[in-house]
Amino acid sequence: MLTRFRSMPATAMAAVLGCALMTTAAPAAAQKKEKPKKEEAAKGKGLTASKGFAPALKKMTDATAAKDAATLQAAVTEGQASATTPDDKYLIGFYQLQLGIMNKDQALQGQGLDVMIESGLTPAENVGVYNFYSGNFAYGAKNYAKAIQRLEAAKAAGSTEAALAPMLMDSYLNGGQIDQGWAIAKAGIDAARAAGTRPSEELYVRPAQAFQKASRTNEMLDVLTMRVQDYPTPATWRNTLYILLQQAGGDKELNLDILRLMRATNSMTQRPEYLEYAGLATEAGFPGEVVALIKHGQNSGAIPKTDTHFGTILESQTPRAASDAAAVAADAAKPATLTNPKAARATADALVGNGEAAKAIPLYQAALAATPTDPVVQYRLGVAQALAGQGDAAVASFAKVQGNRQRLAQLWSIRAKAGAAPAAAPAATPATGS
Hints:
The relative contact order is 0.07. Mean pLDDT is 86; it is low at 1-34, 37-44 and 420-434. The protein folds into two domains: 21-164, no CATH class; 212-432, no CATH class. The protein has helices spanning 25-31, 54-65, 69-82, 86-103, 106-119, 124-140, 144-156, 164-174, 178-194, 202-213, 217-230, 234-248, 252-264, 271-284, 287-300, 308-333, 335-339, 341-353, 357-370, 375-387, 391-398, 406-418, 428-432. The protein is elongated and about 105 Å long. The protein is mostly helical. Helices cover 70% and strands 0% of the residues. The protein has 23 helices and no strands.
């Protein structure tokens, strides 16, 4: 009877990750910088043209000074035929670069840079910038192997171009070298955090997409968990938890716990999510939680108050919630409940669903004392502590969680450290009979 909302085909999974990226942004940004000019190329500095090449060199020099692209093109062609020495070839590359700049032809600019780089005659102060631009052009042409070679050389030469690291990361990722790309992204993330700034979101999204494409789900979730830490928006929470739901399969208790975190992070935005959550909570016997959930959805606008289906659920669950709240309160007050691990856990689960997380904590602790290896009790103790505002205690509890809730515990720890107030409104209305 449950309505599942995640029937997403594999080809559409990339959309879950969200975020517009830099497919061509890095090269575009690089082009805003001034391209290598004559004076930076050390034209003629320490170079000697061969006798046969000298006439073409003069023509290229004059055409460049006159900004006459057509004449320069003819002179370059003439020079290519007469160039015989390494110095000649370096100068040909230099003027190919100038012609490419005049014509705004990146391919020609790249050819010129390559000739100069490969000649071995590039002045040391220009090695970094020439390799950077050569790598930049290769990246724009999707020649990732060449981009990696040139950008690594630029990095080794001390280039400080801001676009270098993102382009190098993306080149590795697109070239199938995911671990190398992620290493660059991780270094950028660590550096930004150490400097007290927030890392660029693309440092998370690009590697996550690459891991996803390679079916390396655990690594993808590692990246997305880090992303939530720096970008704790409802959208990023939703994207990450949605993927966890995809992985949960038919484990109803785990699905319910994931949906609870979606609700706690205000990342439930669609009616089908509320349908599934309501169905699971109803089946598990938490009427107070169902009522609070539907009211939460109505208050957020995700569920219209005129929705007859949810209206019917409210009508059936509200009286049950009132009687259940009274019974749960009575059970929680009985000393015998603390000595019965099963009863303690069940009562604590109901208290959390009713919005009374603080009262659930001693019951979970009692249940855990009797069954210290129960990962669900360990996890739900952390949730209760987080919802009760006991952030440090919650983080400590989550650190002990093993098994299929370990990832969920890591995500709850992020929320607990943020110190946000519980998103779920307590189901107090049914208990008072109003």
